[in-house]
Write a structure and sequence with these properties.
100 residues; mainly alpha
């Protein structure tokens, strides 16, 4: 189950990157010398979400859900680090703390 959720998370992350790169910027419609003036856009109604924006929101929710699921799965596994397996040698000679 962990491997499946991890694979879904990985694919969703790559897909989200592609979706964000496909979206047009806020000011991409107006050219350098042409287009409408800023005053015209001030009172314009905001555009509705298009299909790419809706898919981006859904994929972002999938990433959010899989991130939380992976965190819960790892915490229930009881993952230990490599430092937990290291044992330090104990010296048999007592330390000499007397001042000479």
């Amino acid at each position: 189950m962990y491997t499946f959720v991890l694979a879904v998370h990985f694919v969703a992350c790559l897909f989200l990157i592609l979706l964000v790169l496909m979206q047009s910027g806020k000011g991409s419609a107006a050219g350098i010398f042409g287009g409408s003036s800023g005053g015209d856009n001030l009172f314009a109604s905001p555009t509705a979400f298009n299909v790419v924006n809706k898919i981006t929101a859904v994929v972002a929710c999938v990433i959010f859900i899989t991130s939380i699921s992976l965190t819960v799965m790892v915490s229930k596994r009881g993952v230990s680090s490599a430092a937990d397996k290291v044992t330090l040698p104990v010296s048999s000679a007592p330390a000499d703390n007397s001042a000479k």
